[in-house]
Amino acid sequence: MSELQAADTLTVADFARTFRRVQAEIHKVIIGHEQAVEELLCALFAGGHVLIEGVPGTGKTTLVKTLGMALNLSFNRVQFTVDLMPADITGTRVILSDGDGRREFTFQPGPIFCHILLGDEINRATPKTQSALLEAMAELQVTVSGTTYPLPPPYFVMATLNPIEMEGTYPLPEAQLDRFLFKVRLDFPDQEQLVRIISSTTGPEEAGVAPVFGQADAAAQVEALKRLVREVLAPPAMEQYAARIVRATQPENSRYVGGGSAAQHDEMVNRYVMFGSSPRGAQALILGAKVRALLDGRANLAREDIDAVAVPSLAHRIMLNYAAHSDAIEAAQVVERVIKSVHAART
Q1: Which terminal Cβ of the chain has fewer Cβ within 10 Å, N or C?
Q2: At which of 194, 229, 264 does a domain end?
Q3: Residue 154, preceding bond cis, omega within 30 degrees?
């Protein structure tokens, strides 16, 4: 493929071709996880961040490192622990001496200053440290000692959660979970995938990843692709559809969303949901759907595009009650039921 030039010269075919090429390079190293890789790239090009859940050893670190190699962008990893301080990730001011012996404060950037950041086990950090990272995600800048330092675009954060070990953790509050565009699950590999993982990682040779972009203009190329996503048309009917889905995640007795004919209150939602999705969920639906539309060769949204990204966009934004936990109901099941109920109301 020829080198991309600028956002105004990109076509739908350019985007789809580049997306699939990056995807193919990642799968040279990552065995399986096809849906997770696609959702990860959708979030990246939609301009959001990803919260990823999976048991240890499922390739979370390798996935993000491979993504950085495929895009030719800088990559850093931070292992969150209970004693990690905000300055350990944002950076701090230190005293340095120049050639004349004069001392002055100089800012030393932390590992947060990169294009792609892996926050490993973010729920092991204290709320203060979690907030430092989440503020950088939202504002794309870091403030240290009254001075603001912008983060280099494109900026993409993937934070991981370990679902099998909760001791010594500080779970992310719902308001902070809401800052992530998608939540993606890495499932345990099946028998065939596990054999392929063993064969590819215990042999004498390692799979090589060829960068899709040149090092000098990789960041600009990714930003151009992100701008193209924003230019995809979202018809008013599709915006209405996304709004109905988000409103339908709210239980009937919610004090945050009024009733009325515009709200579809499903029985499952009323029984198991404490709080539904925030308005950011609707934004995630539209942005993720725009990427899906480009991959399908279209410059405008369809209902199927929104349905395809509904679970990663909304599941982590829905707060379930104790009845759901006792009945082993997951948020993804609620989202799927909401989609069906909204479809039924339209027919």
Answers
A1: C
A2: 229
A3: yes
